[in-house]
Amino acid sequence: MELQLKNITSSVAIQDDWLKTRDEILQESKAVTAIAGQQDYTNAEFVLKKVTGHSNNLESKRLELARPFNDAVKEIKMLADKERAELESEKDRLKKAMARWVEDQKRKRREQEEAAARLAAAEAEKRRQAEEAAAVSDDPFGDAARVPEPTPVIKPVTAAPFKMVSSSRIVYEFTVVNPNLVPREFCSVDESKIRAYINLHKDAAQIEGVEIKKVTKIQSR
Q1: Of the candidates 211, 205, 207, 206, the residue with the CA atom closest to the CA atom of residue 177
Q2: CA-to-CA dists, residue 46 to 39, 53, 96, angstroms
Q3: Angle at alpha carbon of residue 173, lines to 172 and 178, rounded to 5°
Q4: Is it the case that residue 50 has pLDDT exceeding 60?
Q5: Largest CA distance in the chain
Q6: How far, rounded to the nearest angstrom, does the alpha carbon of residue 16 sit from its chain's CA centroid?
Q7: Among 154, 83, 144, residue whose Cα is nearest residue 118
Q8: Are 137 and 131 in contact (CB under 8 A)?
Q9: Suppose 205 and one of 7, 9, 97, 201 were both cysteines; which one would form an S-S bond, judging by CB atoms 3.0 to 4.6 Å apart?
Q10: Measured between alpha carbons, how far is 73 from 63 in angstroms, rounded to an integer?
Q11: Average of pLDDT values for 71-86?
């Protein structure tokens, strides 16, 4: 895929006559060392206009010379974006799929830990009840009631820890669900203010009219 760039020059130069005029104006300007009266002020004002005008003249020329290059940069970006669009789409799809798997592994691990905690609590309660029953039972021959053997604790099988070549991290995303409710200090076409606030306060971040949620992002290397 080749892109033909138009109106691109191989060199750019500032004309000698502009440089010569610049030096003359600078010499005239530097001669203005103090303003002691109306005449000095008027003279300084006249020189200032010349300084400003000549400087603006070169700035206008710079913009004119840079325009083809700026257009070329835009054309190059459009070409590159077009050719990499499918790759970027696949990158986004893979990251989302990987993030869903990471979240699923975290959920399973939490469920296993909760199940193990519930089982341990149930076994502890059984032992406590058995000990209480033994303490209050009255054997007619004077022997204390035998405490039943506790039920063996069955530990759930835990999945092997998953490994990732890419790294995952928790980020905070937001969606403006009602622009009319968003506080004024956050009303800006630049969403960086909202993102900075969320990154600062994290779980405690609350913005009226904005939905904030934690999602897992995959960082490719």
Answers
A1: 211
A2: 11, 11, 65
A3: 130
A4: yes
A5: 128
A6: 49
A7: 154
A8: no
A9: 201
A10: 15
A11: 93
